[in-house]
Fold:
Amino acid sequence: MKSSDDYIVVFVTAPTVAEAETIATALVETGLAACVNVLPGVRSVYRWEGALQHDDEVLMIIKSKGSVFADLEKKVLELHSYDVPEVIAVDLTDASAGYLSFLRDSLNP
Structure:
């Protein structure tokens, strides 16, 4: 394992696979993400506007850099259909040297 410096993992949910793939493609094409995993079949339970919700969603797991989070979030908000989409980043504290090399090579500086 090697220190990951400024790298992050961002979680975003979307209502459909098509919307998630549109967002994922835009993020990778612009270099804001190195990779996006699109995981259908997520069941979310949450409270929205005072009512309990149970929704099927698609989870995106996005690998990126903290230094581009603001631009990544802006792109997600441009393409997302939710009023308030989940856009949550966590620091990547360690990763294999090979994967970190992939991240460095795949992301915009």
